[in-house]
Known about the structure:
By secondary structure, chain A is of the alpha/beta class. Helices cover 36% and strands 23% of the residues of chain A. Chain A has a domain at 1-79 and 161-169 and 195-269: 3-Layer(aba) Sandwich (Rossmann fold).
Amino acid sequence: MIRTEHLSRKFGNIKALNNVNLHIKSHETTVIMGGSGSGKTTLLRLLASLECPTSGNIYFGDENLVGIKQKRLYELRAKMGMVFQYSALLNSLSVFENVAFPLREHSDLDDFIIQTIVTMKLEQVGLRGFEDMMPSQLSGGMAKRVAFARAISMDPEVVFFDEPTSGLDPISAGVISNMISDLTKKAKMTSIVVTHDVHAGLEIADHLILLWQGEVIIEGTSEVIRNSDDARVVQFIEGRPDGPIPFSRSETAFIDDLMHKPGTVRMSS
Amino acid sequence: MSAIEKKQPAMFQMLGGLGRWCLQSIEKFGDAAVLSAVSLGYLFRRPWQGKHFMLQMYALGVGSLIIMAITGAFTGMVLALQGYYTLAKFGSESLLGSGVALSILRELGPVLGALMFVGRAGSSITAEIGIMRVTEQLDALQMMAINPHARVILPRIIATTLALPLLVSLFDVIGLAASYVVGVELLGVNAGAFTGEMVAKVIPMDLYAGWLKALVFGFLVGVICTYMGYRAEPTTEGVAHATTQAVVVSSVSILILDYILTSIFL
């Protein structure tokens, strides 16, 4: 479905992604995990063509998304949906209009059909009856579910999820995770989920990719990840503060900083 | 080491800073020009953005009516007072009507109107687009195959360009009416002299010059404010900074451009 070849992305001198080669299969839930700053959101944005890579290729089916003409990209985007980390609902539109938005923009369906589809999608995410509410009146979990309904309103082939459970209470997070699994299995969609929620990631993933410092350190099923003896994987899965993945990211040694910062007390040797 | 040599590093630093500022300004100017040109390129391409243009005309134009009317009224009133005070010294109170009319139509209407428009509409454009950037709404539009250049930027540039001349016309009418009330009703200038001088001295070119200025200022406000919002750093501080910058840069640009346009039209 989606394939990357030697994908790299730099921001100035910082390598956000380095030589990533992936093969994301259709009708599966692929979960991309990693700590903060590991490059997972950058990878998702590249896969969705919201950013251009510094080098490498991204194939959607047989088509290379790198350097693709905007018109063709927009045609392909009819097959894509995305649930953003902060929902990205259009503030000026009601819940109903947000979900109906892609249908109004890209189809000639009459109002009755659009209303029927929107009602079905909102029922799917458990928000039927909230059509007239504005995004500012919704809780975080509700906003995520409306964004979910909007992302699937055009029945896309692929749905991208950026941190779908972050900032949610455990019940809302569980509901969202179940919805992603159901969507993939029942509607035969392909879900690509970026998360640092280990519990949710391991539960819903058919295929899991773990990133560290912009590189893939392991990929496979949840079982493969759970049984890995790679110290970095074990540390991440178990959430240990000590291990090869450092908590502190200082570029210089702590003592050096204390010794040489102007205004600090110098220690005699 | 001589005194000059000692001062060189500071001077070089200052020159370096000035050079960097110039380069950054040129880069931003080019970026804004490209962003606007790309957006304007969608003017004659489907899908038409007529509905969104009308929504912006309402939000930016109708929303600015009251502030424009109040500014116009008090500008006309103050001009009448000051003009009367000055002209009375030469015994030329009868010229008040033409003096006020020429000042408002050629200069104060477009400039003050544009400055008020920047504060009321321009800042809201930048803040709105900046918040769309922070909350990923611009990315969401992209993902729904909707071009933000065509949907977000273009309607706002066209709306500001067309709304400002209309608002300035309102400013002019209310300003002239208010100056009449103060000049004729309060200060006792002869009504016939006031309006007669106004009609005699104001030529169509004065009106056209004012409208053309308003048209140019409106376009400028649209370009600067949409650019600042679109390129705002996606943080709350970034949006606040972009909004302030949009108002400052737009206002200064209006004043500079006003001098250039006035020197052309005189």
